[in-house]
Amino acid sequence: MNYVTAAALSLALVSSAAFAQEPAANGADAMLVGPGITMGTTATMPLKYVEIKDTDIVNSQLIGVEIYNKQNETIGEISDVVIGDGKSVIGIVASVGGFLGLGESYVVIDPASIALANDNGTWKAYVDTSKDDLSKAPKFDYGKLKKQ
Hints:
Elements: H1 2-14, E1 25-26, E2 50-51, H2 59-62, E3 66-68, E4 74-84, E5 88-96, E6 105-109, E7 115-119, E8 122-126, H3 131-135
Parallel strand pairs: 1-2, 3-8
Antiparallel strand pairs: 3-4, 4-5, 5-6, 7-8
């Protein structure tokens, strides 16, 4: 699933309304241009490339990142990234609770409520909540996703 999500995130960054002969958008600026991923079997825009900056983050760097609260306690882990309508990241799926994969559940966090920091080569995510409150958040069930 990580590769599928990484591919979708990469496609979201690559899609653009610009034509192929225009210069590639750089890093985060690429997300600000164009309509996003087309949902269907035919691409509607010419192929365009994106240059990724060292400061940009790819999905594979986020999966498995531990989530901390203000007390620097580990309260969850990033499991997935949600791309809404093929256009932009609308949610971060976090696994919470459980031990060694047993009894864990998932919640979807608004990306605007997460701070990311690189701590000596290790990415960390920070949120303003407690472990208890995060475990009480509305649950997300992968099994209920509509198959397309």
